[in-house]
Amino acid sequence: MTVEAQVLPTPIGPLALLAREGVVVAAGFTADPQEMFVRLPPALRALDLVVTDDLGPSARAVRDYLDGDLKALDSVEVTQPGTPKRQRLLDALRQVPPGVTVSYAELAERAGLPRTAARAAGGACAQNLIAPFVPCHRVLPSTGGFGGYYYGVPVKRWLLTHEGALLP
Q1: Shortest CA distance to 59 belongs to which of 93, 29, 27?
Q2: Which of 62, 71, 96, 128 is the most exposed place for a label (fewest CB within 10 A)?
Q3: Average of pLDDT values for 40-63?
């Protein structure tokens, strides 16, 4: 059993994709799949990491997204660890359409967790292992600006511009 990885070129730098049995378990803007691999849960880190030339549908979805099919990433199966509350937040995040931005509080509300502090939504974004498939770049602080992004604000800005979002 292995975790397969592929690094794809993008206009904003390399994107490492990691999948197990065709399901994306990590994705991030780095040229080194090992950077994503060490963030996986222990059960997956116990497997071998094997770099491949083509992860198939997930790699094709990234290329389609970059070519303008902004919904291409939506159909790719993903999985990542987290509590039931975090899973609800990540599921709600995946439902935010391309070109749309939400605040952390709005994300919590969309997840059916209106009493959840924006901090919990921020935590879910910060721990997200599968950017841009789980589009934490679409969450902006209600106070304005871009807020943080694990891969840097320039990457977040590029993704939002690519999707046609109104920028702060």
Answers
A1: 27
A2: 71
A3: 97
- Distance (Å, rounded) from C-alpha 1 to C-alpha 19? 11
Q: Are residues 104 and 126 in the same domain?
A: yes
136 is catalytic: yes
Q: Print the domain residue range for 104.
A: 84-162
pTM, full prediction: 0.94
How high does pLDDT run on average in the chain?
94
Q: Which of 7-16, 81-90, 137-146 has the highest mean pLDDT?
A: 7-16
Whether 6 contacts 53, CB under 8 Å: yes
Tell me which of 131, 136, 159, 160 is the catalytic residue: 136
66 phi and psi angles, rounded to 5 deg:
-65, -30
| pLDDT of 132 | 97
Number of domains in the chain: 2
For residues 47 and 45, what is the distance between their CA atoms, to the nearest angstrom?
Answer: 5
Starting from the edge strand earliest in sequence, which strands make up the sheet with 23-28, in order? Answer: 23-28, 15-20, 2-8, 48-51
> Do 63 and 105 fall within a single domain?
no
SS3 35: helix
